[in-house]
Specification:
31% of the residues lie in helices and 23% in strands. By secondary structure, the protein is of the alpha+beta class. The protein has a 4-stranded antiparallel beta sheet with strand order 1-2-3-4, with helices on one face. The longest helix is centred in the N-terminal third of the chain and has 14 residues.
Amino acid sequence: MKAFAAAAALGLMLAGCEDGAPERNVTSIEIANPHSEQLKGMSELYRNLGLRRALIDAGQRCKNVERAAYQEQYKSMAIWTAHCVDSGDWAIFIAPSGDVQVRRCGNLAQLGLPQCRPIPEAKGRDKAAR
C-alpha cells in the first residue's frame, strides 16, 4: 500500500511538469538611433555621400556609392547597405552612439550577421547615362 501511495504521489508530481521550457513574456525595446534617422531623411545624394564617408573613415576603398538602402535593425544597430562602383557591396552598422562598423556583404555569413539584401536600382537612373 505504501508503494502504491508513493507511486501515486510521484505520478501526480510529474503530471504537474510542463513539456519543454515555460512560456515567457519578452518585451522588445528598440533604441532610438538619431544617426540612422538622419540618413533616412537625407536626399539620395547626401545619403550616399554620408555612407561613402563611413566607408572611407573605416579604411575601405569606395570611389563612389552608386546606390544605398536602409536594411534593418540588428540588435541595437541600424544596418545600411551600399554599393560602391569600385569595391562592391558593403554593410554599414550604425550604433545609436554614432559608432560605425563596416563589413563586406560577402563576409557576413561567416561572421553570423544578417545577410545583405539586394539594393534596388535608383529610380529614374539609366545605366547607360553613368
